[in-house]
Design goal:
Blueprint: E1 12-14, H1 18-28, E2 31-35, E3 39-44, E4 47-52, H2 57-61, E5 64-68, H3 72-81, H4 84-88, E6 96-98, E7 102-108, E8 114-120
Parallel strand pairs: 1-4, 5-8
Antiparallel strand pairs: 2-3, 3-4, 6-7, 7-8
Length: 124
């Protein structure tokens, strides 16, 4: 049998206003590794995604990203301190414990993409 190992998987996140979304993700805490007029590569640590200069409302409204972090409270505090909800007119919830043994919160990006940012709970 051949080696079927994988090295990486990335999502292509849609952007209604590409420039605004690029700014949003940088303020959120992602590094911009490279950019073209049609796509941008963002990363934070070992996590990365591609932002595409493409928008389809039904697609964006049903697109969800999950970011697993070590300290969900720190991420929420960072985004709150950045004033990201006010600046970009987006919604963000408070962290809460979920039935699937995770504490998380959600934030929507300027295109309507939902991000679920969470950490695993200690409880078994």
């Amino acid at each position: 049998m051949t080696n079927l190992s994988c090295e990486e998987i990335k999502a292509f996140v849609p952007a209604k206003d590409y420039a605004l979304s690029c700014e949003f993700y940088q303020q959120m805490g992602f590094e911009l590794a490279w950019q073209s007029p049609e796509m941008a590569y963002f990363y934070h640590g070992d996590c990365s995604f591609l932002l595409q200069n493409f928008y389809n409302k039904p697609h964006a409204d049903n697109f969800m990203m999950h970011l697993l972090v070590e300290d969900v409270a720190a991420w929420h505090q960072h985004l709150t301190a950045q004033g990201i909800t006010e600046k970009y007119h987006v919604q963000m919830s408070e962290p809460c414990v979920q039935p699937w043994n995770m504490t998380d919160f959600v934030i929507y990006d300027p295109s309507g993409v939902l991000w679920r940012i969470g950490q695993n709970s200690d409880a078994e």
